[in-house]
Amino acid sequence: MTALVHKITGLLDAAAPDLATHLARNGPVPWRRSAALVGELREAGLTGRGGAGFPVWRKISTVAEGRSAVVIGNGAEGEPASDKDHTLLVRAPHLVLDGLQLAAEAVRAAEVYLYVPIGPAADAVRAALAERTQWDAMPVTVVTAPGYFVAGQESAVVAAVEGRPALPADRLELTPRAGVHGRPTLVQNVETLAHTAQIARYGPAWFRRRGTAEEPGTFLVTVSGAVPRGVREVPIGVPLGELLAGATTGLRAALVGGYHGTWVSDLSTPLSRKALVPVGGSIGAGVVIALDNVHCGLKAAADVTRYLAGQSARQCGPCRNGLPALAATMTALADGGGPDLPERARKLADLVERRGACGHPDGTARFVRSSLAVFGDEIARHQRGTCVARSGR
Ligand SMILES: Cc1cc2nc3c(=O)[nH]c(=O)nc-3n(C[C@H](O)[C@H](O)[C@H](O)COP(=O)(O)O)c2cc1C
Ligand code: SF4
Fold this sequence. Notes:
Layout: H1 2-7, H2 19-26, H3 34-44, H4 56-64, E1 69-74, H5 84-91, H6 93-107, E2 109-116, H7 120-131, E3 140-144, H8 154-161, E4 185-189, H9 190-202, H10 204-207, E5 218-225, E6 230-235, H11 240-243, E7 251-256, E8 262-264, H12 273-276, E9 287-292, H13 297-311, H14 317-334, H15 341-352, H16 360-374, H17 376-383
Helix pairs in contact: 3-4, 3-6, 5-7, 6-9, 13-14, 13-16, 14-15, 14-16, 15-16
This protein binds flavin mononucleotide and iron/sulfur cluster.
């Protein structure tokens, strides 16, 4: 395995769709005892790659304290600008399944699930599972994830595994303590699981060779917009401009962290949680949408806000009333409406925040505030009846 340590640097260069190539490239599942894996993940500093960036070792430790635990690999990827989980599941299903088995071993799971959308990802996973029955300690049940934005939120994932509609819900207890049918439940993004497998194979020092000291490792990023859409694996801390090298037009800003993310106009900003704190951002689930100089930022912001308003489950007040009002305000702003609109949008963002059963209103509020801050000059231009992209409005 030592020779491999020097060749493999991340997930995509270890990817192999079939078991024979996967075993030749990566070897078998590197089984661990719970304490060993938790210690290695802690030393490696692995954080979740599904959006919130929570330390993985801590969640596994909490779930391992309970009995009859459930483990779920979350490959829902409801974010429309994200392809990274799909790419990983199709190109490297065995890496994800290795990580799922290791997580199951670590928490002494009684049941293991993989939550993926119907299509090529589910097909790849089913084919991979059929190949590895003799290797796996735990059988894995594949559960279908619907294709809407909130279907991958943790409580929606739990609901789907319980056989209910995949909608977020207010939960009195945290999922690691009481998730599926009240049992301790580990929900981990599929990329997080693949990194877990590679840390178990090659060790924390290998993982820490890339990324920053505070946020080690690589992450998968889906780039789109003013650059050709694709999935790249980069070290955490890579400057935004380096990630977007290859753009054929001048770039105005990039939406970092997906539709719940924030606009970043300084392209020298490193893509790390720490560096994005000053602009209220985060790397989220690794989605970067580049905006060039000839498209209107306000129109892009209005389009995203309308999409987000349409994606809520309309179960809670902020989503039923607040998000549609926010979407209408952002649309009116993009259409060159009155001077009171930015303040109205800010007030609506304040009103919806922390009032939903899940983080959807908060993510939408964050996106709107960031749009108002970064496109301040465009707001002024629109109110004068002009636009950087007259045709784009
Ligand atoms: C609206 C919303 C949608 C989400 N969608 C996904 C998703 O598609 N996939 C995912 O892994 N996490 C998603 N998350 C984050 C999950 O709630 C959860 O934090 C994550 O699956 C935990 O895995 P991780 O710790 O490995 O990142 C979403 C969160 C929110 C608020
Ligand atoms: S806050 Fe919105 S998206 Fe979340 S559960 Fe309530 S209605 Fe659904």
